[in-house]
Design a protein that fits this description.
Shape: globular
Helix content: 40-55%
Structural class: mainly alpha
Strand order of the largest sheet: 1-2-3
Largest sheet: 3 strands, antiparallel
Distance between the termini: 51 Å
Number of strands: 3
Bound molecules: acetyl coenzyme *A
Length: 402
């Protein structure tokens, strides 16, 4: 690691690193990734152990506070999150201003940004107490907002949170309850939902987290910063890949068509990529993908649809790609998004909800990273340099002379 600030002073020397492939923009004590070994730790704890033994709200506490909670701390944290799950009643009108057929991510970018107008009593970032309240509000309300965006998009009435349910069960309730029928959340599905939240909770300085940090470095309020993160996450190269991956698997449709798509992905003249494959940092299996694959098997067998054609296509595609020289040479492995869509689809979510679910899961990572940054006494505004490649100085030409 070379700290260039110590090597060079003054503005005349700088590094050029498009895509930040080898430049750290910050120090962080939250999440560690070893891309060569395929390891991911939250605050030092391996993701596999947290996936098996912990649950999302405990992981939220860990990410935010740095240590696992004791029983009293966890109970207090859960109680505080639960108390914040409702959204301001006037936000209902705000939702109703959107077209019914808007993508839930579009609605979420707007609604979360607008939280600074609804909760401006927690936007003073100089006050640690307000920073804490804003963070808790976002972790608590994002499931409600995502579920409302979904309900609105399908023309159903909003469902209020039911606070005797767990965080994950409550989200399923808000998405799938309808007034005329009693919806009972299956605990196994709630556990699978919780696992998806846990696996997506943080992933160090990815594009959306870096966006949150960059926005926050100017002193912008936390709701605006998280809205910026949501906007960035939506891109198909990032969080939008879970929707794109399932759509691709459905388009492939049957196992016999896989070679055609593998050939397309390898063709330099074809922009097609295998969605859910490859990662900037992992040059080995994404550890989250392994857990997700096991969970996909469990959920589909629980629902009695283990012969699901899409899962068959996914497994066969993975097998063929992992034996193919192109994917071996470029170290392209399935990432977290490869199997998550299959689980979400089996649970009943349309593809348009996949990225909103990623966004609500990642909110704790974003707020933890934002809080870590704002608490740094040496915080500097993020301001990348550029390598100018435009015209040299030239004189203005009058309109009639052009
Ligand atoms: N299918 C086929 N070829 C690929 C794929 C893929 N999914 N991913 C990368 N490659 C190839 C590229 O064409 C490139 O080939 P080249 O060296 O011959 O030019 C090489 O592998 C390196 O690819 P880059 O795009 O330079 O790698 P980068 O680290 O910038 O991109 C990314 C990583 C964006 C994730 C890329 O692998 C990708 O587009 N994957 C598909 C989308 C996806 O699944 N995104 C989710 C990422 S995980 C997340 O955000 C939660």
């Amino acid at each position: 690691v070379v700290d260039i600030r110590k090597l060079y002073s003054g503005a005349d020397v700088f590094t050029y690193d498009p895509g930040f492939t080898s430049t750290a923009a910050c120090e962080s004590a939250i999440t560690y990734i070893d891309g060569d070994k395929g390891e991911l730790w939250y605050r030092g704890y391996p993701i596999e152990q947290l996936a098996t033994s912990s649950h999302y709200l405990e992981v939220c506490y860990l990410l935010m506070q740095g240590e696992l909670p004791n029983a009293a701390q966890l109970a207090d944290f859960e109680e505080r999150i639960t108390r914040h799950t409702m959204v301001h009643e006037q936000m209902h009108y705000f939702f109703r201003g959107f077209r019914r057929d808007s993508h839930p991510m579009a609605t979420m970018v707007g609604v979360v940004g607008a939280m600074s107008a609804f909760y401006h009593d927690s936007t003073d970032i100089t006050d640690p107490m307000q920073r804490e309240i804003a963070s808790m509000r976002m972790i608590a309300k994002l499931p409600t907002i995502a579920a409302m965006a979904y309900k609105y998009s399908i023309g159903q009435p909003f469902v209020y949170p039911q606070n005797d349910l767990s965080y994950a069960a409550n989200f399923l309730h808000m998405c799938f309850s309808v007034p005329a029928e009693k919806y009972v959340v299956d605990p196994a599905l709630a556990r699978a939902m919780d696992l998806i939240f846990t696996l997506h909770a943080d992933h160090e300085q990815n594009a959306s987290t870096s966006t949150v940090r960059l926005a926050g470095s100017s002193g912008a309020n936390p709701f605006a910063c998280i809205a910026a993160g949501i906007a960035c996450l939506w891109g198909p190269a990032h969080g939008g890949a879970n929707q794109a991956a399932l759509e691709m698997l459905e388009e492939i449709g049957t196992v016999d068509r896989i070679p055609e798509y593998i050939a397309k992905a390898k063709d330099k003249d074809d922009p097609f990529r295998l969605m859910g494959f490859g990662h900037r940092v992992y040059k080995n299996f994404d550890p989250r993908a392994k857990v997700m694959k096991e969970s996909a098997d469990e959920v589909l067998s629980l629902l009695g649809i283990e012969n699901n054609e899409t899962l068959k296509v996914a497994k066969e595609l993975e097998r063929i790609a992992l034996e193919d020289d192109y994917f071996i040479e470029k170290k392209l492995y399935p990432n977290v998004d490869f199997y998550s869509g299959i689980i979400l689809s089996a649970m009943g979510f349309p593809t348009s909800m996949f990225t909103p679910i990623f966004a609500l899961s990642r909110t704790v990572g974003w707020v933890s990273q934002w809080k870590e940054m704002i608490g740094d006494p040496e915080l500097k505004i993020g301001r990348p340099r550029q390598l100018y490649i435009g015209e040299g100085r030239r004189d203005y030409v009058d309109l009639k002379s052009r």
